[in-house]
Amino acid sequence: MTAGLIAITGAAHGIGEALALEAIARGYRVALFDRDQAALERLSTGAGSGQCIVCAGDVTCADDLNRLRDAVARQAEPLRMVFANAGILRAGEILDQDIADFEQMFAVNVSGTILTAQALVPSMEAQVEASVFVVTGSTSMLSAGPGFGGYAASKHALLALTEALDAELVRRGSSVRAALLCPAAVQTEIADGGSELLDKLKRRMATHGITPNEMARIAFDELANGQSVVFSSEPSKVVALERLQSLLSGRFITSTRAPETGSR
Known about the structure:
The chain is α/β, with parallel strands linked by helices and 264 residues long.
């Protein structure tokens, strides 16, 4: 008898793969969803017989997510958690970046999360057992720096969506709650791409980041303790507080000078 089933999007690599391995180590079976079917099959084989359900698909496609829903529904175990983890990063300054980059990030990071919730939360509500819908955000949802405005905007959207979803679930007396992961630098391949901005981010991730396995352990531990917002580090909380204080004082935290029409 397992502890239940956990579904994970973006499960083939990085944080998603680590979440899957951590879930299995804690006694869960996992439903793996990602576009990279070959990587999912390797993860399933390495995890051992019967531990994984593999469903290849794209989070921007409702039909693919409905296939995941149906695969989960065929299992005997209750769906204890869903990690809406699929996400992409495209770097570039706002005035120069191709609009297609913005559209792709919002399609995957934001619309993909909404479609995942619409596909799986009703099934979670239909079962007796309590469950959690977990969204992978980022410290980029708490600040916005040059070169990553589009990505930060998509993660800001996830903060609002997850907070609103949780409020809606509470209002309807649901057994499901929503939670948000807020990782800082994690050593994944999300910054691969070869641009100067991404290379700089990769160096910072290598020197300051935690491993995906560490992030997965933090996520499971903090969610088990009832946290709705899970930070990977205490300094991230300081950044969030400093930004809020700066905004309330009438300044962006990244500003280096006052506007010409204003005063310092």
